[in-house]
Amino acid sequence: MKRNFIRTPYLMCLLLIGTLCMFMTEMQDTSAQILDPDLVLYFDYEDFDGDTVIEKSGRGYDGTINGNITQSDDGKFGKAAHFKAGSFLDLDGPNVKPDDIPTEGMSVVAWINVEAISDMAIFNARAKDNTWLVHPEARGDGNYRWLNRSPGSTIFDIRAGKNVANEWQHYAGTFSRADGLAVLYINGKNVGEEKARVPTPIADDWGQGARVGFNIDNKRPFTGLMDDLNVWKRGLTEEEVNTIMNDGVDAFFPVEAQGKLATTWGKLKASK
Hints:
By secondary structure, the protein is α+β, with helices and mostly antiparallel strands.
C-alpha cells in the first residue's frame, strides 16, 4: 500500500509534465507557422508595437520604424501606414535567411496612395557587392518602375503605367526566371512586360540592407499611404495578382492559414 501511495503522485507528476510539454510545443509550432512557402514579407499595417510594425508571413521579419511612420484608419483594407518623407521600415537585410531571399523569381505587391508625383521607393534591397537588386517604384516622370538585377547585370527594367497621386493604386511587379518574363500590373492590368535580358538569378543576398519606403542610399522617399505590402519569392500569375488586389492577401491563403492569422493577430479587415 505504501509503494502504491508513492507511485500515484509520481505518475501524476509525469503526466502533468508531459501534458505541459506537449502544450508548449503546440504553441511554439502555431506561433511559428509560415503562411505560404513563397511568401517572404507581409505587412498589412494592422499591428504597430512601439517603433515596430509587425510582419505577418510567419517568418518574423518585423520592420523597425525609422523616422515618422504612423498608423492610419484610411487604409484600402482596414488600417494603413502613413509614411512621412525620409521615413522607412528597416528589415535588417543582412540577417534575412538565405532561403528566404528571392532569386528564381520575385513579386512585390502593394496598395499605394502617394501624395505627389515624384520618385518613391515601395521596397528596396541592396546586395553586399553593391548590386541594387530590386526597384518597385512610383516615378516622378509619371509612370511606375519594376526592376530586378543579378550581380553585374540588369535582368529587366520596366517603366510603364500612369502614376496617380492622392488615389489608391494597386502595384504588382512579378518575375519568373523559369518563364524568363517580368510583368508590371497596375490595378490588376498588365501595363508592361519584358523578357529577361540575361538568364542569371536575382542577386542572392540583402547584405547592405532591405527597407520599405526609402532606398538604401536615402533616396526616393515614399510619402503617403501604403497598405498590404507583400513580397514573394516567385512570380505571381495575373489571376493571383487580381485575387490579392480584390480580396486582400488573406483570401489567397488556405482556410486553416486564414484562421491562424485571425486567431494570432485578432485582425478584422473591412474593404473600403
